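Hi R.,

Here's the chain you asked about this morning:
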Amino acid sequence: MKILYAIQGTGNGHISRAREIVPLLQKYGELDLLISGTQADVQLVQNVKYQLHGFSFVFGKKGGVNHYETWKSMNLPRFVKDMRKVPLKEYNLILNDFEPVTAWACRMQGVESVGLSHQASFQSKKVPKPKSIDWAQLVMKYYAPATNYVGFHFERYDDFIFTPVIRAEIRNMKISNLGHYTVYLPAIDDKYLVPILKQIPLIKWQVFSKHTKLSYIDGNVEVSPINNELFNKSLASCEGLFTGGGFEGPAEALFLGKKLLVAPMKFQYEQQCNAFALKKLGLPVIWASNKNWLPIIKGWVEQAQEHQFHFPDETAAVIDKVVKDFAR
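And the predicted structure, written out as tokens:
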């Protein structure tokens, strides 16, 4: 059997999930990997056969997408050329983690594919979603369309939705609480964050930033460039995680029993939906309309946060079901 696994390269969540799924898929046959996008800070250890440009959203520094850089990075002629590059009909199974080039190539060629991603869960009307302008929902629906969908979310909202894929390194790590708080907000410049966090002086903050190349300490705030190993160490021993509205990061914090505060990116529909779901589960959110973050962060630090989430290790069973149900 030949399998193609196409992965979105924007953000770290897609590749982090793929690192768990790839070894499982390799048990079923010959596996080729495809990645498009340029905004990830983690890498796969396996060989990537197809590295495509794709469509990436470029993180800004003020809480949202850098629209100018995003627009500048888009190249429609190259997108169409890449669509023709992959011999889709050679494969018995095509899995797609929100990767647009392969998704649209499959659609144009009439080849079946399986959307295997967190975003796939949004095909269900049962998933919590805030009221939103129609175009945002259309982007989610048509950015990487598939024939079939298998989704992951914080809860099993529908029969094709499963609980999050938690990395083995997270499941197996030794958990402690040294009292510090871990911060990862890729769309916020550390120069904006540090002055806010310094106003809560009794707390030690460990900030991981996409916007610095050098580590530094300013008062009670440590700032470091993105580093997967150091971030995992910080997360394992922290009191809580302050992060964006992504999926994998919050899911890992909840799995570890850490306090969680999220600030979803402005005008990013998926993150708004994730934050809305977390809010319904009783977790605190800083929305774009909150101009003064300090009282919310202070309240989060000072108050206990009682939550228990059970995310069983069902990834192998999900992959087995996907292969049996959709391979041709």
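The chain has a mean pLDDT of 90.

Let me know if you need anything else.
M.
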